[in-house]
Amino acid sequence: MNQEQSSGIILVMSGPSGVGKSTVFHALYELTQHLHFSVSCTTRPPRPGEEDGVAYHFLNEAQYQAHLAAGDFLEHATVHAHLYGTLVSELEPIWDGKDVLLDIDVQGMLQVRQNLAAKPQYASRLVTVFLMPPSMAELEKRLRGRKTEDEDTIQRRLAGAQREITFWKEYQYVLINEDSQESARHLASILDAARFRSNILTQETWNA
Ligand code: ADP
Ligand code: 5GP
Fold first, then answer.
1. Nearest CA to ligand 1 atom 11
2. Domains assigned to the chain
3. CA 208 to chain centre
4. Which atom of ligand 1 is least distant from the CA of 25?
5. Does the predicted TM-score (pTM) go above 0.85?
6. CA atoms within 13 A on the CB side of 13
7. Which residue has its alpha carbon closest to ligand 1 atom 12?
8. What is the pLDDT of residue 148?
């Protein structure tokens, strides 16, 4: 049995908007290839350059509500006045040995943790990481520097950041994102360590 490739990890990363979650995930992709980026559903309009089905599944309200009614979401939440949700099906690549990366907010992480608690084969593979900005001033600089949001949206996201940061203790790991390459290296180490958890192995895999 190849312990490192038997199945993947479910990595949930949260952190305030603009802290660098997508940048760190992309840097991680340079270090390790067996990744699946969970593609969330959202009613938020696409930013310039965001492709449907890649950044998000961009849905209208009716399409989103149809998924909700069908029970397709592992978790769902209203974030910064838009609806977001992770499809249950996004976790399945773990059975092909891929690490599944979820960039979701605090409400989403709490639901994932609760919903997977009754499913040990998933719960044992769950790793939660909070990405923290070096300071609020630096967060604002990054959010403004991205030039994708108007002033109202920036203010809403900064207010949300203050709230989100208070939940850092709910996460298994906290990374202060000074340098995205370094944060990606730390994430890779966290993923590596999680693969060796005793609760991932069953007696059957051990005997195989
Ligand atoms: P998030 O996904 O958390 O909303 P992004 O990855 O879009 O954040 O990053 C927000 C902005 O901050 C982008 O312009 C990005 O280039 C920049 N950025 C990301 N990580 C860092 C970092 N470690 N140092 C400086 N700037 C960063
Ligand atoms: P953005 O609109 O900047 O892409 O994301 C805004 C916030 O929504 C981020 O905090 C991001 O983590 C969160 N988010 C993205 N997708 C989901 C999702 O499927 N579920 C939840 N709960 N939050 C999400």
1. 142
2. 3-38+98-202 (3.40.50.300)
3. 32
4. 6
5. yes
6. 31
7. 142
8. 84
